[in-house]
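Hi C.,

You asked whether I'd gotten around to modeling the 495-residue construct. I have! Everything is below, sequence then structure, no commentary in between.
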Amino acid sequence: MKKILSVLVFMLLVIGFVGCQTATTSPTTSSTTANDSTTTNSSGTTSTTNTTEMPDPVTISYAAWNLGAVDSVNLERSMLEAFEVQYPWITVEIIERPKVTDPSGTSEIDQNWNEFLGARAARGTLPDVYFTDSVETTIMNIWSRDMSDIAYEDQEFLNISEDLREAANFGGKLMALPYAVYYFGYFINTSIFEEQNGDVPVFEDTFPDFLDKVSDIANQTVTNGTGIAGVVGIDRMLEWYPAQLNPDLGWYTYDGSVLNLDSQEFEDTLDLYTTLMQDKSLIYDALTPEEQMAAFGTPNTWESNQLAAFFNYTPIIGSMVDLGFDVDFIGTPGTAAAHQIPVILDLICVSSTTQHPEEAYLLAKWMSFGADGYLKRIELSTSIEGIQPLNMTPLQPNEDLLDAFFEIYPTFVEFRKVVAHSSFVIEPNKYVPGYIKARWTADFDAERTVGDIFDLVRSGQLNYADVKDSWNDIANDELTRAITAVYQRLGVEPE
């Protein structure tokens, strides 16, 4: 942290001096000094010239999947330009992801992200800072640098909630940094509840309370198209609800070491889901397409102001401000046992081959959790025409940052409670080695994957009791194998 502070002190000094000269050392290894020299001109007048030692110019390459087209109006590109203003000795080189022909051969699509990174790594041109959708992949290919030596000296990094900042910590090695967090849960049409004189669901509600409140105003049994849909989106309950029944469980029953697909909590969630899917008075998904059209007259019940509670995630929050009715977001209601909010955590890596780790960290921080960068995001997102409203809440629990974000979304009172909450369950896709195989692609038998088993059990086509033990064993075998390999690759002991 002292090294980074020296850079910031340097910037303050530069403003105060008139003359500048280029230095021969980097900002992370040199101190900034000012020297005064006095000269006398032909008239006898003396003058003093100030010279300031300047950092060497540094170029940091950057790759991300949210940069849009080169010529588009894009918040991320604007943020990179602002970074160069904030740190004028650092130039950011954007590495564009190439297009490839799609499988049909008829159009072009973005190259697969890890294939893109792999091709760069093979040429020795891995970006200094880049997004990752799989920390396991970056570790096993030796693409990412352990950032513990820099990050843990930074108080702003330490301000981040521990479960978020430590997601990619393996045996003390910090192999990725948090870029952004997005929340799963229910968007609430508060206007419908007020119009129907109903109690509006709030963050503190338990799941039964939430369902009771929606039941009071839902009207799904009419056939004239004027109905009010209750709840859309219970299909992911088997992933997030077990953690509301047991605080030791996380997403999809992951407890930090293994999955618990054979647990009582998973079985109870399955039973609840099955019951709800039979309730045509409350659950939109329980209706057939024909019944939905008869009741509401449209497949777009949210946009038509006919839906009370809509399960989704917060990256779409910008689309909620001009609907013609008021909206809030309550996350996922808990139970008397636990209240844990499911989240998606996007991660950003610093390359194992970077020659400028301090500057790479500065860039990663600016684009993600740093307070200065986040305030710049607010400024740019509210001042540049064509940029969508900001959908990233601050990663630091800083009241000034929260105030700035919620000025954009003044009706989202309950959402602020979600952000301020201290208990989250993180979707494991990006940071838990082996999870993709354990959740979807591992073979259950010769004909079916574990992902097939999930779908068949949830739909009632397969008896849970008949498969739960073997399903759990197969999934955990994949996790154990992958996690062991990652720790071995890093040369550390599993925790």
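If it helps when you're writing up: The first strand starts at residue 21 and ends at 22.

Thanks,
B.
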